Amino acid sequence: MALGSYPRRFDRNWLGRPETHWLCYGAILAGFLTAWAAGRPSTIRVNTHSSGLAPLSEVRARINPNTADWRALASLPGLGETLSKRIVAYRQAQRDERRDPGAVVFRTPQDLEGVKGIGPKRAAALSKLVVFSD
Questions:
Q1: Whether the model pTM is above 0.85
Q2: What are the Cα distances from residue 125, in Å, to 24, 31, 107, 111?
Q3: Dihedral angle at the C-alpha atoms of 44, 50, 56, 58, nearest 10 degrees?
Q4: CB-side exposure of 29: number of CA atoms within 13 Å?
Q5: How deeply is 64 buried, as exposed, middle or buried, from its count of CB atoms within 10 A (0-12, 13-18, 19+)?
Q6: Which tens digit of pLDDT belongs to each residue from 52-81?
Q7: Averaged over 95-121, what is the pLDDT?
C-alpha cells in the first residue's frame, strides 16, 4: 500500500477516513458547548419597573448625597457603582473649587444633573430617594 492511500474498505465510506473523524469530534463538541450554554442561567437583568427605579417602599431610608459615601449611594436603585463614584467625585471637586470642605453641593434634585450621566428624568426619580439638608 502506498503512503497516503487508504485501504480499499475506506474508499467507499467518507466517514471511515481518518481526517473526517476530527470533523465529527468537532461537531459533537460544538453540540455539547451549545447545550451547556443554553442550560446556564441568564445574566441579563429584566427591569420590571417602568421608571427604572424600585418603588419607594423598597428603599429603607433616604440618603443625603452631600454626606453619603459611594457605597451608600450605590445602594439606591438606579445608581450603580460608576454613577455613585461620579457623584462623590463631583461633590469633592465642587468643594475643592469653593475651598470649603463642608460645603453643601446638592440642595435640590436638579443640582444632581451636574453629574455626568444624571439627566432630568433620573434626577426626578432620585428626588424621592434622597434628602437634602442645608
A1: no
A2: 56, 46, 16, 13
A3: -30
A4: 6
A5: middle
A6: 555 555 545 789 999 999 999 999 888 889
A7: 91
